[in-house]
Amino acid sequence: MNFINFNTTYNPNLQALSSADGYNSVKMNEMFSQVMGNIAAVQSTLSGNIIDVRSFAPGDGSNQSVQIKAFFDSAQEGDVLLFTPGHYKVVKTGWFYTFSGRSVIIRALPGAILEVSDQGIRIEGSNHVEISGLTLVRTTQAAWSKNKTGLHVENSSHVILQHNDISKFTDGIAVNGSNNQDNPARDIVIRNNKLHHLGEEPIAVRSNLVFVVIRENDCSRYLGDGILIKATWHVSITNNFLHSPVLSSDQDYASFSGGQQSLMPTVGGGITCNNEGGESGAKNMHIHGNSIIGTAFGVGLIGFEGAFVTSNYFNEIKKTSVISVSFSPSQFNPDDVSNHLFIIQGNLIDTISMSSATAAIEASTSKGTEGMDIGIISDNIIIPRGKHWGIVADGHIIVKGNYIAKAGIAMNITNGVIASNNIIEAGFDSEGPDRMVSLVNNVTFTNNSIAGKGTSLQIRGSNNIITGNRLRYDGTWWAVHLDSVGYTVENNIIRDNILTVAANVTGRYLFGSSPWSDGKNIVVDLVKDNNGTVYQLVNEIVMMGANSTRWRITIDAKGDLKTTKL
User: Fold this and answer.
1) 324, 438, 513, 538: least buried by Cβ within 10 Å?
2) What is the pTM of this model?
3) How far apart are CA 399 and CA 505, in angstroms?
4) Nearest of 158, 152, 163, 162 to residue 205 by alpha carbon
């Protein structure tokens, strides 16, 4: 047996994102390179025989169950089981074959097909697994929740599954780790596979695994999550293509759903990390460069420590938020595991298809310990093309450098969010838009640019700092709304912003019941009217309407806004 020992630099218990270590991208690249090197090192030491399936089975599409079993039985440690072109069919209830406690090397040449009637191949307790180039297909389509898996790997290390074509199962590839968190299974590579026509997940990785690489897989026509991660540490999910999932409107939907009712989805999903089985939280996930098209959601993260969602492409997301960081005290997180430390950066979100409003990016840290949970949402391009929120953020989150256009509401931010240097263009609804940005309690909103017909800023809380923003207003209501209906609106500082009013504007700069005259809020801003005249708002403001109607907006002794046509 060949055992690879990691040095302490790559200890699986490493808190890679703790304050002591910090995140080091070079270190992480080295780590994942070492995973690949470890597997290559094990491969290079294996020097067994090549066993040709044609020595056992004719490959003519007939039932060859006995012959294929004998073929698998013949392999000794280090031998290579080779499928040459042909159609190899097996008929057996349950797992067709289980490899236990020995190395497994299966390679297939183009044109080799292994067809099974029920479940595929199970591998357990191995220190080296390689399955490459195999076309593995179930005779009939397996439906949701039927537990019919193509390749299942259990408590095994140094695993590489690559260039396989797997279809018609419930899960395509399922990898489960060890039963001991202190001694996890490790070094798992799932790459360049084509996984399609599946009742649930193309790829599911669960339970006490460390150093996992999932990359360049093509996943389509499935009903569950695209890639499901549970209790996995140091995982890289890169450059996968998730697209064309099963839809409830499809003619063959019944064959995937199997008439199930409980929790059955109506659209296949994206990339998920959750804790629905009471698992420990995942750690250090890198979700990078994936293309996710037409799925129910994009990326859903629940109960984790360290997540990097970067440079992914999302298009035509159909059911829920595109990228979500949520506590979800539900069946997906029964132990209410907290979220810690995330970066959502450089993603392109183009079009949310559902008719009811959802969010392109939503994230919350507000349930975490004060000062411990932190998230960054930066440098994303978000174009929902519908009545949806661009970014919803709650808690210790930095929102910076994002571009948002064609949204119903560009931002809804609350409870300590710091938002800066974002560009917000005109919303989706050009006739009667609601608002561009909502601020609720303890938000810092600075150096942003907002243009559109909706209310530029709706302030629904207290202790917000709103400075240095550029507002280009083209609406018929008001640019800034102090909304005290259901909220206490006081101690807000609104100053040093510049408002440019379009020539056809009939709306006003400020509306709301909390006055600045008694010190509850402070407003000191510049406003440019449609004639090009600049006014400074202190206790009153003069603006020009669409037809050169001049309005003087003042606050009376009771704090009510009064307008007088001049």
Assistant:
1) 538
2) 0.86
3) 30
4) 152
